[in-house]
Amino acid sequence: MSIIEKALDKRRSSQAKVPPDTNANLASAAPPAGDLRAPPVAPAAAQAASEHPVRTSKQINIDFGWLRRQGIMVPGEKRSSLAEQFRHIKRPVLNNAFGQQSAARVPKGRMIMVTSSLPKEGKTFTSVNLALSMALEVDRTVLLVDADVARPALPRTIGFEADRGLMDVLTDPGIEIPDVLLRTNIPNLTILPAGRFHAQSTELLASSAMVRLLEDLHNRYQDRIILFDSPPLLVTSESGVLATQMGQVIMVVEADNTPASSVERAMEQLEGCDVVLTLLNKSTSVPGQSYGGGYYYSQGPGSAKDEGAKAHEA
Ligand SMILES: Nc1ncnc2c1ncn2[C@@H]1O[C@H](COP(=O)(O)OP(=O)(O)OP(=O)(O)O)[C@@H](O)[C@H]1O
Ligand SMILES: [Mg+2]
Is the CB of residue 112 less than 8 Å from the CB of residue 227? Predict the structure, then answer.
């Protein structure tokens, strides 16, 4: 066997080490989405890189018809009152995150958790619409994380299937974030699914591995918003744990339904959070807003109070 044949043979056998689900072809065919994929491998470096599996994320195709049927905003659709509302809702959050329009930049303000005190107040609805609206911003990318690890709702709401995700990264040292990220046909939107349920999910979300993972997600791209859909604060302890790592928390309150005492008890769990914005959802009392949503106040250093009042008036 010649030296060249030996080299080719070595290369073939090392390529066979790449796991079948790395989906390298899909990744190279699709537009970049600002995720954690390994950078493209230059030919000269191919041999060295083949010693390690190439980590790439998969791409999913979000069906806009499905979004419409779920009552979710459809990117690019003109004259949508829902899209208009989320344009107002995202503004103070983005201002806090990036220190725009006289708002001070909130430390770790790009890490945003959507929560509520009770089930079914509209956390997932808010997370998805907010993520879509933010992904339409020029020069911003959005990573939408399904942190409702016990009852993940993003697959059903957005219309995709995923088995692996956040929990798998935390429990399996052989799985890394790029292996489980889902890029989408919306160029600035990437999804991190919840992954397989784990009995110690609360402990995992509070673990030092999770803190490191969040720091990595936060530090890698300075233009990236990381938005977490989470479970209700008064039903599980995951959201309370996660909130301590966030720069901003959006507290969804269902209009005319959530008891004030529940909101108060939930807010007690967020006492350590500097910026908590409250979103009144499903309100019909705001003129011209059949869906509701739009009243904000904040505690801590964020300047969202004034912005929120504007959103309410809009
Ligand atoms: N502003 C809104 N307008 C219309 N429908 C809404 C609105 N907010 C929520 N919904 C609908 O209410 C239902 C519950 O919403 P969602 O699943 O977002 O709640 P959740 O707080 O995430 O629930 P869970 O606690 O189970 O995770 C869904 O069918 C959703 O489409
Ligand atoms: Mg939900």
Answer: yes
Q: Is 294 helix (H, G, I), strand (E, B) or coil?
A: coil
Query: In whole angstroms, what is the distance from residue 131 CA to residue 86 CA?
Result: 10
192 DSSP β-pair partners: 145
> What pairs with residue 184 in β-bridges?
60
149 domain residue, yes or no: yes
Q: Which of 54, 21, 25, 22 is nearest to 38 (CA)?
A: 54
Residue 21 domain flag:
no
Strands 189-192 and 224-229: unpaired
Pocket of ligand 1 (CB under 6 A): 71, 116, 119-125, 148, 153, 232, 281-282, 291-293
- 136-178: per-residue pLDDT in tens? 998 899 999 999 999 999 999 999 999 999 999 999 999 999 9
Ligand nearest to the CA of 252: 1
Q: What is the mean pLDDT of residues 45-59?
A: 58
CA dist., res. 60 & res. 274, Å (int):
35
Ligand nearest to the CA of 117: 1
Residue 173 lies in a domain: yes
User: What range defines the domain where residue 279 resides?
Assistant: 58-313
User: Mind listing the pLDDT tens digit for each residue in 215-271?
Assistant: 999 998 889 999 999 999 999 998 999 999 999 999 999 999 999 999 999 999 999
The domain tally of the chain equals 1
CATH (domain of 137): 3.40.50.300
Distance 276 CA to ligand 2 centre (A): 19
Q: How far is the CA of 7 from the centre of ligand 2 (A)?
A: 52
**36 within a domain of the structure (yes/no):** no
3-state secondary structure of 60: strand
Nearest to 178 by CA among 41, 45, 33, 17: 33
What is the crossing angle of helices 123-135 and 81-98, to 10°? 80
Q: Which atom of ligand 1 is nearest to the CA of 121?
A: 21
Please report the beta strands in 233-283, taking only residues with DSSP state E, as ranges in sequence order: 248-254, 276-281
